[in-house]
Write a structure and sequence with these properties.
The structure holds two protein chains of two kinds. Chain A has helices at about 1-25, 35-60, 65-70, 80-125, 160-165, 170-185, 185-200, 205-230, 230-245, 260-270, 275-315; strands spanning about 130, 135-140, 145-150, 155-160. By secondary structure, chain A is mostly helical. Chain A has one domain (about 1-250, about 260-275, about 285-315). In chain A, strand 1 and strand 2 (about 135-140) form a beta hairpin. Chain B is built from five helices and four strands, in the order αβααββαβα. Classes of the chains: A mainly alpha, B alpha+beta. Chain B: It comes from Actinomadura syzygii.
Chain lengths: ~325, ~130
């Protein structure tokens, strides 16, 4: 019993504190962003399950009233001393209040995000116009170049006229393929879930690092789709032109935004495509390792938590 | 434009944004039917204008027995708000969209949009 609880706590600490830094070190050099994304999602989900398991175990352990709830039929409370029961009840109350407080932070945030997205769509409906050549694109009449996507049944990609003017037709197509990849791979849902996880449980280093690293990895995954379809050079051209925004950012004396992330994307695209069969084999091996890790990161806390709670029901 | 959902709402907004001042439903109707292949009924336009007023997109002022309608905000303001959403992150909620590349540092976005708007309105005034 004690070993199970210790195991559960160890899983939570291992996933929550160590998985993130390790993934951060490995992930940057990973050939495929998809493998890194799978690892991060596995680690974040596992952290969450492990933490929830620890809380559940604490609430259900013998003198706590949660255990009484569980063991109502067996009538086990009388065995425990009155003092122990009161202490455990107070501890449970504090724990429950803390959990409730965290969840109460996360849910309104989710509601605000969804509401803001809906409002954004409504404004688009009023002022954006449909692109004649592309059935899934809305055009916003504004000189500042911007291209983005937000999930919607129709016309989920939005570009400003500034973007259309700044890019060649081939570069423009690459931007659209990039955004379509985001939509197809449901990156918006992933980002929403990640934000929620961070709002509810912001302390584990794994979750903090995931929030910092995952968006860039998602960009890279979409970059790969665009580079496959339109060529890496075209995509780099589009990135350079849009990120530099000549005459716009420069006029304000603004530094290039988020230069690190952008430079990393460009560098990666430029160095890609030089790999031979060895590189492909390495990518396959790392994909296998990544899927094993992701499955383990989710399954291990799930199994240990389930075993602990089952054990608790037999214990009195 | 016809493909967008609620395209009548959009057409009404377009007419009112172009109009020199607040319009009555009858004037609005005439403007809408002028270059339409399907003529709209008075009641339809009135209902939709009323709905837009309830949503806060139109302002309603009494004029005799009827009402005059005008947009509460200029078209450009909506465009600027959309651009701000597209260029900045909000601490208040999670991400609502994924952008291709950050063309402007989020903290500079508002200044940039304001500067552009001033330049645009200055050019019109000259």
């Amino acid at each position: 019993m004690v070993y199970l609880v210790l195991g559960l706590i160890a899983t939570a600490v291992l996933l929550g504190c160590s998985a993130g830094p390790v993934l951060d070190r490995l992930g940057r050099s990973a050939a495929r962003p998809g493998t890194a994304i799978a690892c991060w999602v596995g680690a974040v989900t596992g952290t969450f399950i492990a933490c929830a398991g620890v809380v559940a175990a604490a609430l259900l352990s013998p003198p706590a009233p949660g255990h009484g709830l569980l063991e109502w039929l067996r009538d086990c409370l009388p065995h425990h001393g009155g003092k122990a029961i009161v202490t455990a009840a107070a501890a449970s109350l504090v724990l429950l209040a803390a959990c409730g407080f965290r969840v109460a932070r996360g849910l309104p945030r989710l509601r605000r995000t969804v509401r803001h997205r809906r409002r954004h769509r409504e404004m688009l409906r009023l002022v954006a116009s449909e692109d004649e050549r592309h059935g899934d694109v809305l055009v916003l009449d504004h000189p500042v170049p911007v291209a983005y996507s937000l999930p919607a049944r129709r016309r989920a990609i939005v570009v400003s006229t500034g973007t259309r003017d700044a890019l060649t037709p081939a570069e423009f197509d690459a931007v659209l393929v990039h955004e379509r990849a985001h939509l197809r791979q449901r990156h918006h849902a992933l980002l929403l879930m990640l934000d929620l996880a961070h709002a509810v449980l912001p302390w584990p280093p794994t979750i903090r690092r995931a929030k910092r690293t995952l968006p860039l990895l998602l960009e890279m995954a979409a970059d790969d789709a665009a580079a496959r379809a339109c060529g890496g050079r075209t995509l780099v051209g589009a990135l350079r032109r849009l990120a530099a925004a000549p005459g716009v950012a420069g006029a304000l004396g603004a530094a290039s935004p988020d230069a690190g992330a952008l430079a990393e994307r460009v560098l990666r695209l430029e160095s890609a495509g030089t790999g031979g069969p060895r590189r492909a084999a390495r990518a396959a091996a790392s994909a296998f390792a990544a899927s094993t890790f992701a499955a383990l990161a989710v399954a291990a806390p799930l199994v240990v938590a389930a075993a602990t709670i089952t054990e608790l029901t037999h214990l009195c | 434009m016809a493909g967008l959902g609620g395209s009548l709402e959009r057409s009404i907004m377009d007419v009112l944004w172009e109009a020199p001042g607040p319009l009555r439903v009858r004037e609005l109707l005439a403007e809408l039917n002028e270059n339409a292949d399907k003529t709209l009924a008075y009641n339809t336009v009135q209902t939709v204008a009323e709905r837009l007023a309830q949503k806060g997109l139109l302002r309603r002022t009494r004029d005799g027995l009827a009402f005059r309608y005008s947009p509460t905000r200029a078209r450009e303001e909506y465009a600027v708000e959309l651009m701000l959403d597209a260029l900045t992150e909000s601490a208040d909620h999670g991400s609502i969209l994924t952008r291709f590349a950050e063309s402007v540092p989020p903290e500079d976005a508002r200044h940039l949009l304001d500067a552009l708007r001033r330049r645009a309105s200055g050019a019109e005034g000259e």
